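Journal club prep — side note

Before the paper discussion, L.F. wants everyone to see what a predicted structure for a comparable chain looks like in token form. Sequence:
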Amino acid sequence: MTTAEHSIELAVIIPTLNERANIRPLLELLDRALGSIRWEAIFVDDDSSDGTADAVWTAALERPNVRCLRRIGRHGLASACMEGMLASGAPFLAVMDGDLQHDETLLPRMLGLLQAGDLDIVIASRFAAGSRMVDFSSRRERLSRIGNWMSRQVCRANLSDPLSGFFMLRRALLNEVAYSVAGLGFKILVDIFASARRPLRFAEIPSVFRARQHGDSKLDSAVVAEFGLLLCDKTLGRWVPARFLAFLMVGVGGMFIHMGALGIASWALRLPFLTGQALATVVAILWNYYLNNEFTYRDKRRRGRAFWLGLTVFCAACAFGAAINYELAKVLFESGIAWLPAGAAGAFVGGIWNYNMTSFFVWSNPRPKRA
């Protein structure tokens, strides 16, 4: 056979987190659906605790077209999809979930559309005419429709389902947007459309969104918050980093926590002011660290011993930032500037210090420790 006959036509990228029970059933479904198409499956596993990577490696011993990328210290569905696509040399790349909810029988049709026309990307839509969602709660459908509306504002394309996790694109498009995608959150399709510097040529086909067979849904409040972070990055990211905005929002919330804790210490516990102030400061720092770890840096969050080490470094960095804040505000105030702009300038510069120092020293890319 020639090299062309051996080459892979299609790579199916499957991000996973605790999907061990779905690996073999999904591969069997792909076998039946893709038939004579030369394909490979690349599972990108975010260090699952249930042995998902082991299940993929076991399958790979029997199937030369199966690979596993196990990520340690990195998390997030969007970035997993990007790493999986970049790991393959196939001219066509599909992304689908590992929970058996996506209809794999659509893959040959999606590939045919890309091969036959001048399309950049084909999307399996849950909301196109003829689509159907099985066991999809009214609340989740409502959230999806709201999210779709918000996504269309940054996608610059009239997509019926910009939050779809099932699509196929040309490698040329991946190469075009690879340096621009944020890789934040759980919806890479929005990221791709928002990062493209030209209108993308796309097609949507109806799909059946099936009921989950094994495992649990990954949709939670933190994932929704990550989605908001992605939208911020695609609207304001060229001027202000989205993580910095999230860091500031957490800091503003920390101010309210600080004042609340001070009030409780002073009025309810009747502690001396300085004691209450110290206690409130500790509470606010702990609050800020926890929220930044769970939200702002969700994809790099620390666990186990790394969590406590990160907290120590965070406290040291913020203590230095507080000193910068105080000294700058003092100098400005003593030079004749009113207290409000002087205090705001000190807080802003201190915030920039805290953001840069903690980004580099706390959440640069910690090597996780299992709790």
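L.F.'s comment for the group: The beta strands are 10-16, 39-45, 66-70, 92-95, 121-125, 132-133, 167-170, 202-206, 208-209. Keep this in mind when we get to the figures.
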